[in-house]
Amino acid sequence: MQSQRMVVVGAGPVGSAVACRAAEQGSSVVVVTRSGRGPDIDGVRLIALDATDRAALGAASAGADVIVNCANPGSYPAWEREWPPLAASILGAAEDVGAVLVTLSNLYGYGPVDEPMTRTMPLRPSDHKGALRARMWEEARAAHEAGRVRATEARASDYVGPTAPVTSSILARYAAATLAGKPARVFSDPDQPHAWTAVDDIAATLLALAQNEQAWGSPWIVPSSPPTTVRDVLSELSRLSGAPPPRLRTLPRPVVRMGGWLVPILRELDGVLYQFDRPFLVDTEETTAVLGIRPSPWPTVLAETAVAWRDRAVG
């Protein structure tokens, strides 16, 4: 990898992985968070600032070759309030300093589909979260096509990996109960095939996008696992970590929707459960062909995840 001057906004599992990988490969990295926390390693400088402040972010990014947006505004109910000013500021800062903008995104913008998702498939979101992510990409692409910035994004499915927190995916929440030997209440069909994305593969894709001019101006789907059901993933995590087999109790959808009247996160969750009502798969042949990124071996991902998630569940 060519050495770069890089700014990473956000220090969650993916932002931290990007910063560490880039620093290990010789890049000079600045990690921007509100708290000033992040990976404490050589080659990474931590800065505390509010990334919605375009001028402050631009000053911290002066001289950067690339800005990687790994920000996470928090829980779903906060997205509509917090994402627009944050995304606009990061896009504006990249334009101001002449940096390539690489954004971490997800698959929500595609909405319900009946075939594996590809990077060129039209975006047809079915809820406000998907519409928001689609709008963020369209704004970045418009700026790219106008020549104001060079932009691209990586779209990942639900996270797996030892550093993925409980809040990173529905699967991680189910696993927290399962690996502690408790029944897991699942919100949808646990026997539908699904694509899962390793945190390390997301980081590798973001870094490859930062360097490959051919990829700019387009979205790319992160290479992910083979189709694997929730039940099968939890069963394998249990086996690898020595936990009892999973006990899954499916909540009827009307119960979830009724709960949404009182619990905002349940209301937001209902908007993405379509991803588990049918096969949720990806076709990433183009990502592999252009960027050379292949998914990490699935048995290895599961083995590393099982140990970390079990320690967290019983710790």
From TrEMBL:
<dbReference type="GO" id="GO:0005737">
    <property type="term" value="C:cytoplasm"/>
</dbReference>
<protein>
    <submittedName>
        <fullName>NAD-dependent epimerase</fullName>
    </submittedName>
</protein>
<feature type="domain" description="NAD-dependent epimerase/dehydratase">
    <location>
        <begin position="7"/>
        <end position="214"/>
    </location>
</feature>
<dbReference type="GO" id="GO:0004029">
    <property type="term" value="F:aldehyde dehydrogenase (NAD+) activity"/>
</dbReference>
<dbReference type="InterPro" id="IPR001509">
    <property type="entry name" value="Epimerase_deHydtase"/>
</dbReference>
<dbReference type="InterPro" id="IPR051783">
    <property type="entry name" value="NAD(P)-dependent_oxidoreduct"/>
</dbReference>
<dbReference type="Pfam" id="PF01370">
    <property type="entry name" value="Epimerase"/>
</dbReference>
<dbReference type="InterPro" id="IPR036291">
    <property type="entry name" value="NAD(P)-bd_dom_sf"/>
</dbReference>
